[in-house]
Every structure is written in C-alpha cells, then in structure tokens.
Specification:
The chain is α+β, with helices and mostly antiparallel strands and 148 residues long. The chain is 37% helix and 18% strand. β3 and β4 form a beta hairpin.
Length: 148
Amino acid sequence: EVGDIIGPVPTEFGASVLLYVDRRSPLAERVASVQARLAEPDADFAAIAKAESDGEEAARGGDLGWIAPFEADPAVEDALRTASVGQVIGPLTLDDGVHFYRVEGRETRSLGPEQRESLVETAFDAWYQPKREAAFAQGLVTIADDAP
C-alpha cells in the first residue's frame, strides 16, 4: 500500500529501508501514452512535460533553453538538426531515460556564460569521440597489446 515502509532489505550496498510512494505503469506504456498525447491536435507540450517528465526541467514545461552545437547527446543533435520548427522528436532512448523534444525555434545567437563554460569543457571530446570510435571500428587505429 502507498505509505508502507518495507525493510530492512539486503542490497549490494548494505541494508535499505524503502518507503512505497507510488506505483507506475511500465515504461513502454508511459512512453506510448506520452506519444499519443503529443500526437493529438493542439497538444500542449509544456503541460505534458510538466505532468509526465521526471527531469529537473519538468517544472519549466520541459524548457531546456537554447541548445548549442556539441551541447547535447549526438543522437539528440542529429534529430534536432533535421527537425522543423514545431516538430516533436521522440521517443529517443538515452543513457538516462526516454526523451521527447519539441523544436521551438532556430536562430544564431551568442553563447551564454554557462553554455560557453560547458562547451569549453566538453566540445572537443564530443567532436572527437565519434571520430575515434569510427577509426577503431574501421581498423584504422589499433592499440598494441603491450601498450600501457
């Protein structure tokens, strides 16, 4: 029952005490429900995001702000690059869950301070990693067995 305390339960980290908060439908059902709601005429993306999202941006109606190149997961960037304004993209399954996006607009803008700092730290790796993986996959680069 909601509100029940369960445990202690042995886990790999020791013993845990659990509070039963809510029961959710299986992920596939929740994703299908969100897809159906987003496909309705005049669907309100922000309201659906507020109601269904587990992310910190849910309270803002899913608003992520402007996304600069190399700022998002490469799969997200590829989908966003080809989407038209107003188009909903998803479901996209990423390491942290299932995502839906709606392209609100496109424009060339200056980076904000947080975006600039984030890109300075991550842009090279975001650009280089797919190229490195492709080179290894094609056999263009190898690492010797005795390499440190």
